[in-house]
């Protein structure tokens, strides 16, 4: 008989990547810990971190990770979707501040997030995952938050009047590409500088 201690975590239902609705409170907490830990480890050590190591660092059993994320691709997708939803929440919070330049704050955070998760997004692209198809509601919610802040910035005269929300999203995607082109050694400071140069094009002439 094996002396290995089994994973005693009660069985948790498998949920679609990025969706924790319907989970028990303890299962939701476990899932959140796994996502936060995976984000940190991927950013620090790349995508080769084993699922079992993520489980150990998150303080849960390997079975818990595999139930929520049966494959590495499922975890990559959940990490990316979770980050979009966190940006949506940041957009909602910024909308409540009344700051007319809050659009630039959100866009800066979006570019920083994109730079941090570039490897995750590249892995999803290689696996032929499109976030807009995999999480259309989250993507639409983020665009909506950008549009809200863009409208306020326009009224205050801190952004060009001839730019649309879709164009802003395209500009952010362009900033991601520029940061990736700068290479992995660009660092946060240089990445922020590159993003700032690009986002300055949104300001009134």
From TrEMBL:
Any coiled-coil regions, as ranges:
none
Q: Give the keywords, sorted.
A: DNA-binding, Transcription, Transcription regulation
The family database entries (Pfam families) matched by this protein are listed as:
TetR_C_43, TetR_N
Residues of the region (Disordered) are 1-26
Its recorded name reads: TetR family transcriptional regulator
- Identify the PANTHER family for this entry: HTH-TYPE TRANSCRIPTIONAL REGULATOR BETI, HTH-TYPE TRANSCRIPTIONAL REGULATOR RUTR
- Domain (HTH tetR-type) ranges: 28-87
- Extent of Basic and acidic residues compositional bias: 1-10
List the stretches of this chain annotated as a DNA-binding region. 50-69
Q: Cite the SUPFAM superfamilies for this sequence.
A: Homeodomain-like, Tetracyclin repressor-like, C-terminal domain
Superkingdom of origin: Bacteria
Q: Gene3D superfamilies in the record, alphabetically?
A: Tetracycline Repressor, domain 2 (1.10.357.10)
Q: What is the lineage of its organism?
A: Bacteria, Bacillati, Actinomycetota, Actinomycetes, Streptosporangiales
| Provenance organism | Planomonospora parontospora
* InterPro entries the UniProt entry points to: Homeodomain-like_sf, HTH-type_TetR-like_transc_reg, HTH_TetR, Tet_transcr_reg_TetR-rel_C_sf, TetR_SbtR-like_C
One GO term in the molecular function aspect is: DNA-binding transcription factor activity
